[in-house]
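MODEL INPUT / OUTPUT PAIR
PAIR INDEX: 1
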Amino acid sequence: MIRLPALTVLAAFAAFTAAPAFASTPITLDQAMAHPDWIGTPVEAAWWNWDGKQVIYKQKRTGSPVRDIFRVDAGKAGASQVKDAELAKLDSPDVLFNRERTRAIVVRNGDLFERDLKTGALVQVTRGSGATIATPQYSADGRAIQFRAGDDWYQWDRQDRVLAPLAVIRAAKDPAAQDPDALRDLQLRLIATLKRQKDERDATRARAEEERRADPSRAPAPIYLGDKIAIVSSALSPDGRWLLVVTGPKDAPKGRVGKMPRYVTESGYEEFSDERTRVGRNPPQGHGLKLVNLATREVKDLAFDALPGIAVDPLAAMRVAQKLDPLKGNRPAMIGFRGEAITWSQDGTNVAVMLRSVDNKDRWIATVDLPRAALKPVHRLSDEAWVNYDNNEFGWLPDDKTLWYLSEESGYSHLYVRDAGGKTRALTGGKWEASDVAWSADGQTAWLLCNRKTPGAYEVCAVSAKDGATREVSSLDGGVEDFRLSPDQKKLLVHFSGPYLPPQIATLPSHGGAAVKLTDTRTADFKARDWIQPQLVPVPSTHGADPVWAKLYRPEQLEPGKQYPVVMFVHGAGYLQNVSRRYTPYFREQMFHNLLVQKGYVVLDMDYRASKGYGAKWRTAIYRQMGHPELDDYLDGVNWMVANQQGDRAKVGIYGGSYGGFMTLIGMLRAPGVFQAGAALRPVTDWTTYNHEYTANILNTPELDPEAYKVSSPIEYAQNLQGHLLIAHGMVDDNVFFQDSVRMAQRLIELKKDNWELAPYPMERHSFVQPESWYDEYRRIYQLFERTLK
């Protein structure tokens, strides 16, 4: 391989960074890595005004962390900033409507309000209570608002304007309860005065409780659940009769935490902070579920025994192989994944609970037989790898009897309904994903995000509850990010984006029609540039039936007979979709790819197996073998570039951050003859050092499955390094610890490896913030590729 002299590389780099900034020329590296405000600040949270005539949104102020609030008419562009004096009149991004959609609950700045949607009147319910307001809801009769603050539930009655506790629960021992004690019994039997005093206390306490229950103006007494548990969350039935309480262990075991040093500090001294524990050192503890009858104050535990498969350990063979004790009884289970995991029907007669096994092999949805205090399983989703922690929405239709939910049971996330008789119907199906469901007030239509045409093209679909008829109602070039229904449900407010268009907002009729684009916040400088539009291409796979979708960056015309050096980009997170028509979270990298193309490279960015948007099989292909299917996909990508894009097989580089950094190391160390250069940014080098929530899904735990960790960790292949390697890492990274790169560096030192370097960034976390750090990192990447691939 020819290696350019250092002065030649630096001279080329100086010319590269000094390129003039006009449309027909490449952007400079300094500009590409500058603060993203130069692109134009995107539209952030956006929501409907109460009357549906205007849209309110937030936008970052250029050159400042401050966010301003704007309003724009729903049918035309042209926004105006909301003045400070008008803030008290606004709603919030998330509102909850009553059954008739005549009133709405608004939570703003930690306080609770109610909006009358007929008159627009806004009534404040709380002010500066100090406790975080959670899970507000309307009572079954619609006359009151209920909400949780801390562990307690409150109700505000609209007619008498009284805010009062509805359910007060305590994870403590009942002070009136006494444990059996033989000595006390002896004293009370022998000493009449002691017995008389106790009887008087008991009579006084009993009478006080009778008076409390008889007097509706008084708050209820606390309900004590015992001092052996901690309260995790709770859910109140809208009719005020029942409370479901999620509990956890009071003193959960804690693993040893990591210590992160900081060397550049205001004090001038080294400082240290406690960070997360490693995988397997703090496994999640199972939850309990209690049902409280608020009328009788009776508390019953809901057993999980009825959940199908809960007593079967899918990892039993591994426990035997590692000579570990078998599990006894049921597998521990937790309530939910993200968001609300308990959902009541609006009338309070039905409730559904989502549970998952701690090993993440099973997800259940169960209803509760309230009189019998028993779970009734209605759906089980099981995966020998792990069930998805996304797309777990569920709830009740307006008839209060029909349950709806998302499930990957077909291999893709789709929408299902289950009627009161137990009959389940799939409303959507096919090789695409349904997510972010919103129902009409009559329960006849569901709106959701869909990617039916290609995996990377997202629109809003409307689905009929009657027959599952599905159609796209938006047409925004596949760039829809999310949506909100207007208060009257006749319009949609949509966040949309494009490859070089940060998120903007538009409105359109909810049953289909032309969209009115309300904003374009890009700067004139950014819009004037001549960007290379990525081509979304399906790369044939030699290891599966489905192609690997990728973004291709190349010149408009390839020079006949010329071979181009190839750069392969690897997105982070693993379970993330980057090959889409939306604005990429890797917008700096996308500009860098423009630079590389202008400098004579071709670039391929792949949604390798484990990426989001392609179904369960694609997601779980990496189970117990991280880095193996993904590398196969990248090798297919290299072959495709050579065969179809005039790529030079002898000049292939690879780079990426986080999971992309991990995959860069995998490529360099497991296919050293393919990749001549690689830049591994903030990489995981050893999965035993990463967190439990992510890693245990894919590799189980190091104690149970040491071989999975061995075959998946790049440090185990360090002896294979042949090409040129750059490792770059923030020293205060609290996601992937800097220690990962330090340990890899020591391993390479001991192996006497050449042509590698470690670039530390003393003040950067996992995602870099400072433009100077971004510039330095990508200067090194560019120089690496120029030095080794040209």
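PAIR INDEX: 2
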Amino acid sequence: MSRLFRTALLTAAILTTIPPASAIDLNAPIPVGPQVKVGKLPNGLTYYIQRNGKPEHKLELRLVVKAGSVLEEDDQQGLAHMLEHLAFNGSTHFKQQDLVSYLQSIGLKVGADLNAYTGPDETVYTLPVPTDRKENVDTAFTMLEDWAHGILLSPEAVDKERAIILEEARSHKGVVQRVQLALLPKAYNNSRYASRIPIGKEDVIRTASPDTVRRFYHDWYRPDLMAVIVVGDIDPGDAERQIKMHFLGLQNPAGERPRNYSDIPARKGTDAFVFTDAEMPVNRVGLTFSPRLEPNLGTYGSYRDKTIENLYTLMLDLRLAELAQQPNPPFMFGNGGNDPLTARYKAFALGAVLGAGGQAPALAALQQELQRVRQYGFTMPELERARKDILTGLEHGYNERNTTDSAAYAAEYQRNFLANESIPGVEAEYHLAQALLPTISLEDVNAAARKAFAADAGKLVTFIGGTKAGPAPTEQELVAEVTKGEHAQVAKREEKALPTHLMERPAKPGTIVAESQDKKLGLTRLTLSNGVKVILKPSDFRKDQVLLGAKRYGGQTQFDAQDMPNARLASSLATAMGVRDYNQLDMQKILTGRNAAAGVNLGTYTDEIGGQSGSSREDLEAMFQMLWLRFDGVRRDENVYNAIRNGVTELVRNRTVSPEARFGDAIVDAIYGGHPYEPRSFVPADVAKINLDRSIALYRQRFASAKGLTFVLVGDFDVAAIKPLVAAYLGTLPTPDLPLNFRDVGLRESRGIIKKEVLAGTEPKSVLSLTFSGPAKWSPAESLRMSALTEVMNLRVFSVLREKDGLIYGGQARGTVERIPYEHYQIGMQMPTGPDKVEKLVAAVFGEIDDLKAHGPTQAELDKVKANWRQSYRQWQHENNYWLEHLQSSLLDGTDPARLLTITDEIEKLSVADVQRAAQRYLDKKNYVEVVLNPVGSADAKSASTH
């Protein structure tokens, strides 16, 4: 049977499962699609199996348990999360640390690959494994089985994990958590969800016995509350046999406890919440309507209701964005939509980040927009645009369905199990939306919106802010402002007429004056009549995706130091103001229904262009038009400029109240010694220098010419079909002369040992930052050795600093070797810890550094790094963005792009001695910057001694 015939039969089969719109029974369940097998074992365990080839030789596994922190008893608060941790520390088939060590040996990273999380209603374990060896798959299913009923919970493992979880709890401390703890009782209207946050209570974590953890495990980790999800490169029959072999024997406990879900009471009247904190860097207001019990029934009606929600949310958010671009806008940023409080409850909520005017104009503007919808509704042009946006997204998913990553499908089945989201399959959903959207009238959307934010519904109005900008409103003032706005009279919205395209195609296109092929890499190289060069790399890696990029030397450092505030703001300001006669929101409306974007950016030493589109001619042309217009000029818009400048002013004014912001500034200053070009954040003196015309002038100096650019296009396109668009748009870009080299402005890292302490914040938490830097001989091979060194360091951060010593919860080292503006390297690491542990942590880090320099990594450690890289590079070589970045880098650095095909050979040649020499070269204990963030008033706050 031909592939075309098979596709036709499949499409016909799918279409027969979707009735015509006139015949849809909204109460009928949406059938499960043919792409996935959903089954249930006699013990109640649910399973999902889908064969999927992206990425190749990879299997995405999930164990999903309908049990989370909301089920904890008073003496168990935090133990659902502790149990999730303990799943990796000793089970029936794996001794402590054996599980993690084994997974690292087959190429997985903790956090990036192997992961888990605990929520109020669920716990989810994620396990992606390579399938090139059957042993990997067999072992992975054994791990899932152990997590389901074989976690040992030994006293030693529980005691060891306490320190790590307490460090995780410490890392959560700060203004965000303080707001959360104060707001949750109000947000959840005093339901059980407000008192059962997953991290739990520290006294419970410190003192809970293994039996108390075991009680939660026994009660709630049971097959009738579990799902096993298997998506990837595996035979579905083999997957089902594995599931039955490992999970058929699981039994539900005798006298099992009922799995009830907590209710959230409706809100009566208008309530208020005011929270101020000296460390809050922004002021925000929120307006949340009463919670609504609206579980997803998995029916056509539920799908239709969700589609209507998406429609009015898109339209309302666009209106709020327009308000933020007004002269003297009422707020810096605003948005709205239905907040999924749980899988069963939702509440319509609006929020806004405040400007200098405070909460009164923001609340008034938010309520006026709601009133406008209540009184006049949305307009038909708005609805048509929103319909197109939804269909464009679904069409993109439909076109990409055969190159979608397994993780995306696994996440969808997870939502089905937890929240009853329908899973008809991409094809069926696309056809369903095509059938349903035309039947959704403007009256349907307006009625649903008015119901979601009815004027007489109960509400919670919130103000969350800092203390620097002045006194906060009282709760009584907030209630009065909301009550006043509930029945405000507003004018009907006027719809602006706009064209359907940004521009006409240039009347006289450029020409292709030279063309060559690189068959080894599958490239077509073009030279256009204006001197611009193009590299075309068609691929089938991801359907309906085309990526565009170009880089050349230039950037912010082309300009004098006094121009840096305007240079840093130039590209974002030019982008925000739009093109020609169209502001950014006009552009969004004009491009409705097209999957396209393009923009430019001034980097430090480079001018950068980026874009993406779908594979249709309309999408590609829209991307090229946006790019062409970025070189055509800058639309001067005082209103947008004032809104951005006022926003920057507010952020700068409040930024220093954040301990993390002050810490980050201190690190940059310590590394670069206050150099005028150092990559720091804006300060008040910078804001005074911002000037609209100067920013535009700097932008035009770099982006009025495409000279020296080589555009790289990678993705789902036909070379012959794209050439006319390339010639028409890229071939007609202006190319006057401009400087095409980077400018070395003398920015260098500090030398010697520099130590600095930052005292900020009131929570008992510290952060250690270490930075090693200096001259280095750059080469691609040296960059690889640097990467190997930092990956080995990260293995020890996890295995020693976290798991063995319990000094941290998380931390990471990053290192690079750079060629410009001079050949140099930098290794940086940041690790949160306790004030009383800083000196121990510093000593432990330097102890590992000494060991790496003296002995190098173990062969097992290096083998784990190589295994991960083998997996990663095999996957990356089938990703458009990897090819784009690699081709651009090879152009800038003058290296052979074919190295992409042989880099795994270089990886295999890396030795323990290579990494040891890199450690000796780069981890120079006579040349580093150490910055420690300690809380104000901490008796233990002090920097470590010299090493």
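PAIR 2 NOTE: The chain has 30 helices and 24 strands.
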